[in-house]
Description:
The chain is α+β, with helices and mostly antiparallel strands.
Amino acid sequence: MKSFEIINHILDLPNFAKLKSFNETTSVLKSMLGRNLGGLIKFAYQKEQNSQIWLFIAVLSPLAMHELKHDSNIFLISSLLKKYCELNPTSKIKKPDQIRFFIPKTSGISKNPIFGLYDLPKISNLPKGEFENTAQDPQIYEAFETIRNVIKNANKRA
């Protein structure tokens, strides 16, 4: 048996219904939002309070929280979940009434005690400087080549 089969078998047990809902909410949000916005989410879960469904989304960093708190992204999340609920009525995910974002304590971000600055995690998908330079003007062509060299040198240091 493979590890994901074991995990799915465990999640199907009635004792782990909340964990299955938690896992489903996180995976649905990440897949529906795509790589850019979905990559900012660490995990998500739903909770019912005062007959309202609240969606809590844990983000990776303060910058991710700022990005996801835009009205357009909140509307996007709620409309995508509404459509998902309509298409999958047997799902445990419900249409949220409220959406809240937070940064978990184990977010992988540490605060530098000397300067008070955040040390953000390294970005894994750095540009490689591989692109076609089709500029006709020699000055613009040289500017693009300079940019290519800067990107390649930055990747060597990282």
